[in-house]
Amino acid sequence: MKMEIKEINTKNAPDAIGPYSQGIKVGQFIFTSGQIPIDPNTGEIVSEDIEYQAKQCMLNLQAVLKEAGSSLENIIKITVFIKDMNDFAKINSVYENYVKRPFPARSCVEVARLPKDVLCEMEAIAVIV
Predict the structure, then answer these.
(1) What amino acid positions are annotated as catalytic residues?
(2) Distance between alpha carbon 120 and the CA centroid of its chain, in Å?
(3) What pLDDT score does 16 carry?
(4) What pLDDT shows up at residue 7?
(5) Helix, strand, or coil here: 58?
(6) What whole-number distance in Å separates Cα of residue 57 and Cα of residue 38?
(7) Beta strands across the sheet bearing 29-32
(8) H or E stretch including 5?
């Protein structure tokens, strides 16, 4: 059985800054690329504040998923990359406003550096239901 692979692109999330897609749809699954806290309207990083950055990452994920026919409610796995693990609680306080039970599976990893020196990046796997 051959499955179609479809590229997902929306103007409501930042353009890819390299040779990758905002997202890929395969069957009922959507795989997003990492979303960093860039405002798609200005092309600028939203703030130096981790909570504003986390919110923008979630909004960018939401836009990619919506374009693919899904939503934040249909995320089954999310990966959060953060520059400083001390920001974990702040990111959780923002994150919990965007997800509902049953919560997606999640990994959170502290990394040395992220694109454009942002404080966080998020990627997700979701389904279309």
Answers:
(1) 108
(2) 10
(3) 87
(4) 97
(5) helix
(6) 8
(7) 5-8, 23-26, 29-32, 120-127, 75-82, 105-110
(8) strand 5-8
Measured distance between the N- and C-terminal CA atoms of the chain, rounded to whole angstroms: 21
> Can you give the pLDDT at residue 59?
98
Q: Which two tokens stand for residue 64?
A: 């990619």
Cβ atoms of 108 and 121 closer than 8 Å: no
Residues of the chain with pLDDT under 70: none
Q: Is 99 exposed, middle or buried (0-12, 13-18, 19+ CB in 10 A)?
A: middle
The pTM (predicted TM-score) of the whole model is 0.96
Secondary structure letter of residue 25 according to DSSP: E
| For helices 50-67 and 88-95, angle between their N-to-C axes, nearest 10 degrees | 40
Q: Note the maximum CA span of the chain.
A: 47
Q: CA 105, CA 87: separation in Å to the nearest integer?
A: 19
Distance CA 30, CA 59 (A): 16
CB 27 within 8 A of CB 3: yes
The number of angstroms, rounded, from the C-alpha of 6 to the middle of its chain's C-alpha atoms is 18
Cα–Cα nearest to 34, from 50, 18, 12: 18
